[in-house]
Amino acid sequence: MKTLTKTSLLFTVALTVGAVMASAEEKSANVTVNFHESDKFTDVRTSLGSGTDEYYLKELRRHVEKLAAKQLAPGQKLEVTFTDIDLAGDYLPTPAKSQDVRIIKEIYLPRMKLSFRLLDETGKVISEGERRLSDMNFMSNINPIGRGEPLYYDKALLDDWIRKEFKS
């Protein structure tokens, strides 16, 4: 009898988790993020002299999909295309054998150029435009939560834009 109860409980939990995950995936399916000619972006790299880092692009894509999906009304779709990204911070020249470290200072603010289209459930364009995002006061953000997270300042810049642009 106890085994049946535990099995039922585990099955119910698995179904619930699956439904929540499917719902989140369905919502983020309404958000499409592209990177136009990412190899020409100003700075999306993990070290001085390296090319565009796909990990950073995936992190930014995932972040926009997750946050924007929460802001959209049911049936709406959002298409975002990044045309340039300059991550917060920069790499300074170091001796050849040392590891590169991204230095975060006020003078190395995050900047992004993007275009977007917001569509209703029929595919009609509700709004569209091009935006140049930057935050000269990015280090003054007093929210300490998440500061250890990769791309914290860059994600905060996107959070601010998404909340202002797509108020639900």
Tell me the layout of helices and strands.
Layout: H1 2-28, E1 31-35, H2 54-71, E2 77-86, E3 90-91, E4 102-103, E5 111-119, E6 125-134, H3 152-165
Parallel strand pairs: 1-2
Antiparallel strand pairs: 2-5, 3-4, 5-6
Helix pairs in contact: 2-3
Please provide a written account of the structure.
By secondary structure, the chain is α+β, with helices and mostly antiparallel strands. The protein has one domain. Helix 2 packs parallel to helix 3. It is globular and about 55 Å long. The protein starts with a helix and ends with a helix.
Question: What about the largest sheet?
Answer: 4 strands, mixed
Q: Please report the number of helical segments.
A: 3
| Unreliable spans | 9-27
Shape: globular
Spatial strand order of the main sheet: 1-2-5-6
- What is the average of the pLDDT values? 81
Q: Return the string of H and E elements.
A: HEHEEEEEH
Total DSSP E strands = 6
The fraction of residues assigned to DSSP E strands is 15-25%
Radius of gyration: 20 Å
Helix/sheet category: alpha+beta
Percent helix among the residues?
Answer: 25-40%
Question: Could you tell me how far the N terminus lies from the C terminus, measured between alpha carbons in angstroms?
Answer: 48 Å
Count of the domains: 1
Task: Please tag this protein with its features.
3 helices; 6 strands; alpha+beta; 168 residues; two-stranded antiparallel ribbon
Short description:
By secondary structure, the protein is α+β, with helices and mostly antiparallel strands. It has helices at 2-28, 54-71, 152-165; strands at residues 31-35, 77-86, 90-91, 102-103, 111-119, 125-134.
